[in-house]
């Protein structure tokens, strides 16, 4: 048993998950409120700290100090379990995301699995239980409807989400996220094939299925994280607050944080698969191989690049939320099953044909 | 890492017992998910990452979600109130004892635990991970059974569509 590995992994878990991702969750709540305010021509929270940056801290203290009320009619055990089941899978998926090349000879990924994207989908598919349980355990009408809606929505969009990644995996021939990023660093990002092997007729032609993949992937991600325009499980005009109607104080906040954590991890996966992860464009500062040692300042730049891309995607999520109106529920299901499912399947076949023709 | 094996084996067993013991259908379904998670962890401990992850993705993440969905929609409560009939309890106990005896006989007579596991053959190809190996085998040696399974699933899907569409006409 190698204690060095365990200590290194623990440090990475503590720093990446608890000192970076969780504050990022709080910051994206702040960003959401500021961006929505800007879009609606309001000011937004700007009193606590510079530009309101400490608003998240104030919110956190407020949630912790509020009375934690458990209604009488709920199924207690499951009612308490549900918020944790939303939060935990969202944070667990961060284990396989490579958030940097390497720093002081240590790879910047918590678990370098050979089944990276599959692991993310598998663990993320467990987060639906938190919402289902919340809806069922609350034992009242609106939460139950919200839970039922979210179950059918998440099952439906999981299919197109999984299928949308297949063309990419076919092109990379690899399920290890670190190798996928290294490949993109050398041969052009999936969506920006402007250097290395990507700068060829083949690379440009393969961008067509990748763009289709990206559209399907991002749309399904919105549905999976219950974000507007697909936030039917908690839509205020029909269901009060959906599955978390009966929750108060920190338990309510955990649902909120879980949604944002899922959004951040989803952005991280999108960045890793489509935008070259931690790599800089045009092959700048690219390490020789996946586990080659790089100078410490290269490592820091790579980590910074990854988070810059993730933050850009989070802002995209937020802007979309305040731009598009909500779908009707039957439209949402039809879009998932009749449109995106077929598009994703067709895309797999198209990629196979293109690769066979170009080989 | 034997202590991890014991933790996850215990998790799988506790989940399994929970499925049988719980009278509430939703609790039973959740115990089953716990059991699946324990099993997946055991697979991963054996370096079978793909099998372990698929266990979570397919069973815990998709099939059990549908189970719970249906249980919740139908709001099954008759099971909770029903008394345990003596005859079926005895029958179930008898089957369990017979199965345990069978397992014991097989395990004591076989070489499990004494013989070494045969080494995996290296497969030519672009990658050496278990995903590549399983993919390679599925699409070369076992291509025919895979096609048959695919057609079987397709037939089942079409059957479900036909049966559920019938009432509309």
Number of strands of chain A: 2
H/E series of chain B, N to C?
HHHHHHH
In CATH terms, the superfamily of the largest domain in chain B is: NADH-ubiquinone/plastoquinone oxidoreductase chain 6, subunit NuoJ
Shape of chain A: globular
Total count of domains of chain B: 2
Distance between the termini of chain A: 45 Å
- Count of DSSP H/I helices of chain A: 12
Helix-strand sequence of chain A: HHHEEHHHHHHHHH
The CATH class designation of the largest domain in chain B is Mainly Alpha
Give a written overview of the molecule.
The complex is a heterodimer of chains A (359) and B (169). By secondary structure, chain A is an all-alpha fold. Chain A has one domain. Chain A has helices at residues 3-39, 55-65, 76-92, 116-124, 127-137, 141-172, 177-187, 201-224, 236-239, 249-274, 296-321, 329-358, and strands at 102-103, 106-107. A two-stranded antiparallel ribbon of chain A has the order 1-2. Chain A starts with a helix and ends with a helix. The model of chain A has no long low-confidence stretch (mean pLDDT 83). The N and C termini of chain B lie far apart (60 Å). Chain B has two domains: 1-83, NADH-ubiquinone/plastoquinone oxidoreductase chain 6, subunit NuoJ (Four Helix Bundle (Hemerythrin (Met), subunit A)); 126-169. Helices cover 76% and strands 0% of the residues of chain B. Chain B has seven helices and no strands. The longest helix of chain B has 26 residues, at 49-74. Chain B is mainly alpha-helical and 169 residues long. Chains A and B meet through helix 4, helix 5 and helix 6 of A and helix 2 and helix 3 of B.
Please summarize what this structure is.
The complex is a heterodimer of chains A (359) and B (169). Chain A has 359 residues and is an all-alpha fold. Chain A is 66% helix and 1% strand.
